[in-house]
Write a structure and sequence with these properties.
With 429 residues, the protein is an alpha+beta fold. Strands 1, 2, 3, 4, 11 and 12 form a 6-stranded mixed sheet that branches. Strands 15-14-13-18 form a 4-stranded mixed sheet, with helices on both faces. A 3-stranded antiparallel sheet has the order 6-5-7, covered by helices on one side. Helix 3 packs across helix 4, helix 5 packs across helix 11 and helix 6 packs antiparallel against helix 9. It is globular. The model has no long low-confidence stretch (mean pLDDT 90). Bound molecules: adenosine-5'-diphosphate (ADP) and magnesium ion.
Length: 429
């Protein structure tokens, strides 16, 4: 029987505790829940209808922090104090990110190459964990504001290729934000769950999850057997996404619009913003026109598609490699799921479906799929969804180093967790 708490101070009945699902994205983040009445996974929306929170953190001179839509404009006006893509730094040392240093407009500390990176803002230093915690705190406050109830428990998603250190860092960020992080789950697993794939308890299904976000591309091949999700392979490109589509349009305009000297440099950010608008409009309409000052800029969907064609081909090459690593052909893939805002581009949908030679799943909002799946997992953990039993496995074998430098495996990889084992050892020296 369910227990119902009573708030002694107010005398009101307490709602059963809400566990939220969080997609902590490189570009955008969001929170979803299982709606208490409709029982459907639902992304939390502001009054203005927006569910996504840009993963941007701005610090002003007084140390005040702003996150999300309020922080985004500072990317242009105050770039050194505005942190974006903090997720790329999670669990990384300076050595890891050195070759992409130019990508970040803010200062990354490079005095100790091997230790974990820190970001310098003014005379303060922030770890990627603290930066992610700021985003998670904003999400928590927002969720509490919308739901009008405290929100303390969460399931947070991470890319399938995140290693143990990066997963721990994400968990720690959640803890700093005041969450009890019940589970860290893989983004492609969450996306599959959102489509109801893998919720049936018997049989085996292979799913390819194609995730094209703002700055990153991931392809994962999953095998789900009796409710256990196993990542067979992952591939991708950590510097390929919708932002590159925007850049293609900007370059095209600069090359063809006959702009006066200096215009492009002076209006760099306006061009980028207009290009993103054009791209999003072209997902619906055949042509786009807009202007900056008295200059008109136009582009057709056909032109846009030919500009991004080489980038889309690169994603398909990665899909090919992922299939090879997974040891399966296109025929062995049962489902293809599209995730990420950039999969709204019709040419992407068409080319991915042509590559896999099947219709692909893209009817859910691609910005929300991962968060919706996290909410489903949260609901399962809350014990509300008795029909399904979602099992997780350890991706690596766990063991102990014994005499002679050998590893004595205690828990083999792909063991269903939680799992407990005990073995007795004696000292050899
Ligand atoms: P991430 O997973 O990296 O946080 P998202 O999945 O939120 O990113 O994807 C963000 C990207 O999706 C941005 O580049 C944005 O411009 C793009 N995007 C959003 N809506 C559309 C649309 N209608 N058409 C094309 N691209 C879109
Ligand atoms: Mg994403």
């Amino acid at each position: 029987m369910a227990k119902i708490g009573i708030n002694i101070a107010t005398g009101s009945l307490q709602q059963p505790e809400m566990i939220v699902g969080i997609d902590l994205g490189t570009t955008n983040s969001l929170v979803a829940i299982i709606h208490p009445e409709t029982k459907l996974p639902t992304a939390l929306k502001e009054f203005d209808g927006s569910s996504i929170v840009p993963s941007v953190v701005h610090f002003d001179a007084f140390g005040n922090v702003e996150v999300g839509a309020a922080a985004k404009p500072y990317l242009e006006t105050d770039p050194t104090n505005t942190i974006f893509s903090a997720k790329r730094l999670m669990g990384k040392s300076y050595n890891d990110i050195q070759t992409h240093q130019d990508f970040f407009a803010y200062k990354i500390i490079d005095d100790n190459n091997d230790s974990l990176v820190k970001v310098q803002v003014g005379n303060q230093f922030y770890s990627p964990i603290e930066l992610s915690a700021h985003i998670l705190t904003a999400l928590k406050n927002r969720a509490e504001h919308i739901l009008k109830t405290p929100v303390n428990k969460a399931v947070i998603t991470v890319p399938a290729y995140f290693n143990d250190g990066q997963r721990k860092a994400t968990r720690e960020a959640g803890r700093l934000a005041g969450f009890d992080v019940l589970r860290i789950i893989n983004e492609p697993t969450a996306a599959s769950l959102a489509y109801g794939i893998g919720l049936q308890r018997s049989g085996s299904t292979r799913v390819a999850v194609y995730d094209l976000g703002g700055g990153t591309f991931d392809i994962s091949v999953l095998e789900i057997t009796d409710g256990v999700f196993e990542v067979l392979s992952t591939h991708g490109d950590t510097h390929l996404g919708g932002d590159d589509f925007d850049q293609c349009i900007v370059k095209h305009w600069i090359a063809t619009a006959g702009l006066p000297a200096g215009f492009a440099t002076e209006h760099q950010s306006a061009l980028r913003v207009l290009a993103e608008q054009a791209k999003c409009a072209l997902s619906q309409l055949p042509v786009f026109t807009g202007n900056i000052d008295e200059f008109q800029f136009g582009i057709s969907r056909a032109e846009f598609e030919s500009l991004i064609h080489p980038l889309v081909i690169r994603t398909l090459d990665a899909c090919q490699r992922a299939l090879i690593d997974a040891g399966c052909g296109i025929q062995q893939i049962d489902e293809v799921v599209l995730v990420g805002g950039s999969t709204r581009v019709p040419a992407v949908i068409n080319q991915v479906s042509a590559f896999f030679n099947r219709s692909v799943r893209h009817n859910l909002d691609p910005d929300q799929v991962v968060a919706l799946g996290a909410a489903i997992q949260a609901d399962i953990l809350a014990g509300n969804n008795q029909a399904t039993l979602l099992l997780d496995v350890t991706p690596l074998s766990l063991g102990i180093e014994t005499a002679g430098g050998l590893m004595d495996v205690l828990i083999p990889r792909n063991t269903k967790i939680p799992f407990k084992v005990a073995r007795e050892y004696t000292t050899s020296v």
